[in-house]
Amino acid sequence: MLTTNCETLYAELMDVARLYGDIPDVAHYFVHSGDVFFNMVVVGGREYRFEERQPYAGEIEFKRYARRFAKLALYKALSSETGKEMPWGALTGIRPTKLAYSEKERGNDFFPLFKKFGVSRENAELVADVLASQEGIYAKEEGRADLYIGIPFCPSKCNYCSFITADINHTGKYLDGYLAALGEEIAACKGLRRYTSGYIGGGTPLVLSEEALARVLEAAAKILPAGAEYTVEAGRPDVFTEGKLALLKEYGVTRICVNPQTFCDATLGRIGRKHTAADIYRAFEMARAFGFDVNCDLIAGLTGESLAEFSDSIDRAVALSPENITVHSLCLNKGAKLKAEESRLFVEDIGKMIAYSREKLYAAGYRPYYMYRQKYAAGNSENTGWTKPGKACVYNVDVMEEISDNVACGANAVSKRVFFEEGRIERIASPKDIPTYMQKIGKIVADKLQFFA
Ligand code: SF4
User: If you take atom 3 of ligand 1, which residue's CA is the nearest one?
Assistant: First the structure.
């Protein structure tokens, strides 16, 4: 159990404690005097004391440093107590690149700060490579936005999935009403911002019939400028048809995601997919025939998957030579059918899987161009998007670095407004549940217009 005399630090401290799994009782104490931050951690009967002198300007900065030093103190105490160091050290935030950018904006090299936090040299270098890949793309600009459209329907539910998406066999009855509400919301977003990219995600957008897909594409076409980067998360290979890809092409889609997650048929069956590796190859061929840029998603740590099977998937994806490959670490949020305890058995090799993917992708000429972490990621690892030179997906960079507004439409869609001057972000979320989204669409649209006014 973790206790602290400063309740506002509890959640951040728990993020660090969680890295260590089952830990004995830990007591944390924080006091400050002027610009001196003092933290004490008592664990295993030993006291660890830390003192940092850090000037700050205002309450926001004070809180930031208080959180930072408290986490660092707990991490140092626990790593000393257990003899275990973590690949990201005491950094528990989901966007290490943002911390690196903020250091750069202050004119500092970020490596010393990462080192102080116990981040491994390899991970600090990964962040440096991501920043290098984002040169020429990373642009903070008022008034610009990316458009997101959510299609929360899938052909079946994968066992690790925690999205609100559901099997279309159960939710298909809502499809017509959902598309009507979605069309209304998209139309209302016309001219809200200057859109620089569009993204139709899910779910599995290509689970829609051609007619239904055309409704969504038609609505988006009325507000997206011609020539904008336009991505559709086509998704699982079992739903690809030439007719659907022809429609995407006709409506100016430039990039599609083919998401195999693994090329191992046994794993595909275990996670609840209804397709095989052969379908993945067929989907790739189709995507190429239509001239799309392709993003391919893989997951390290899937149920029962060995290091050899994961490595084989990486090799096969690289051999297909998509423009982007995203390597995720399995993440089991609330809502996933697969329970965390079950998956733990299979993730011992996760660090080796991620290391293999990095080595292979660098060697094949890919470079990391965005990365983020998730709280419940297997092995405390990260998700990294890799790109061939000049082929980075701008939408992904915008979203991960939070450098533009995001106008998001659909059930469970979260719109985001970035206030650059004030250094803050506001969000507004639509209802997760499809029937509620349909019922409340009038209010959702009104709230959104006000949010972006
Ligand atoms: S295809 Fe993706 S969104 Fe659909 S159930 Fe599987 S993981 Fe979830």
Answer: 203
Q: Which atom of ligand 1 is nearest to the CA of 261?
A: 7
- This prediction's pTM: 0.89
Distance 48 CA to ligand 1 centre (A): 45
Pocket test for ligand 1, best of 165, 262, 299, 374 (most atoms within 8 A of CB): 165
* Residue 274 · residue 155 · CB < 8 Å: yes
- Using the atom order of ligand 1, give the atom closest to the CA of residue 154: 4
| Spatial distance between the Cα atoms of 72 and 162, rounded to a whole number of angstroms | 30
Distance from C-alpha of 19 to C-alpha of 41, rounded to nearest angstrom: 16
102 and 209 fall within a common domain: no
Quick one: pLDDT band at residue 345, thresholds 50, 70, 90?
very low
Per-residue pLDDT reduced to its tens digit, 385-430: 999 999 999 999 999 999 999 999 999 999 999 998 888 899 999 9
Domain encompassing residue 228: 144-409
Decide if 73 contacts 48 (C-beta within 8 A).
yes
- Verify that 182 and 124 share a domain, yes or no: no
| Contact present, 99 and 91 (Cβ < 8 Å) | yes
Tens of pLDDT, residues 129-187: 999 999 999 988 888 999 999 999 998 887 777 777 778 888 889 999 999 999 999 99
- Cα–Cα distance measured from residue 221 to residue 187, given in angstroms and rounded to the nearest whole number: 10
